[in-house]
Design a protein that fits this description.
This protein is mainly beta and about 130 residues long. The protein is built from 1 helix and 9 strands. Strands 1-8-7-6-4-3-2-5-9 form a 9-stranded mixed beta sheet, with no helix packed on it. A hairpin with a 5-residue loop joins strand 2 (about 10-15) and strand 3 (about 20-30). The termini are far apart.
Length: about 130
């Protein structure tokens, strides 16, 4: 099963400033705690070595969110799939795409809107 919790995504930060490693957190409606990510791999070349900041909105019901997110692990470990901002330097995807392969939840795909994503250089102040 592929998890596609995009509509429940609230905010987060993914950091690829250490080569071969992506760490960070995501917060979802329907979950009390942040989800911690520790992935092997890198972002796609358009944003490799940078940070991805996410700020989204949830407009659904809490009950629906709790039901969908039930069973989603609070610790996501595994390997990165395709993670891109979909910007002008992206090779073949023109929209933000975040994918990883979780030891706990198999494949996870997020496709947030471009307005919800900010790419930050490792030297930019946060």
């Amino acid at each position: 099963m592929t998890w596609r919790p995009t509509e429940y995504l609230l905010d987060g930060e993914l950091d690829n400033t250490v080569p071969g490693s992506i760490v960070g957190w995501l917060r979802f409606a329907g979950m009390m705690d942040k989800v911690a990510l520790r992935l092997e791999g890198d972002f796609m070349p358009d944003i490799r070595g940078r940070k991805l900041l996410i700020q989204a909105k949830f407009i659904g019901s809490d009950r629906e969110a709790c039901k969908y997110m039930d069973g989603f692990a609070r610790q996501q470990r595994g390997r990165a799939g395709r993670i891109t901002s979909g910007g002008p330097n992206s090779r073949d995807i023109d929209y933000p795409y975040i994918e990883w392969y979780s030891e706990s939840n198999n494949r996870v795909v997020l496709m947030p809107g471009p307005e919800t994503i900010a790419v930050v250089d490792k030297h930019d102040p946060e």
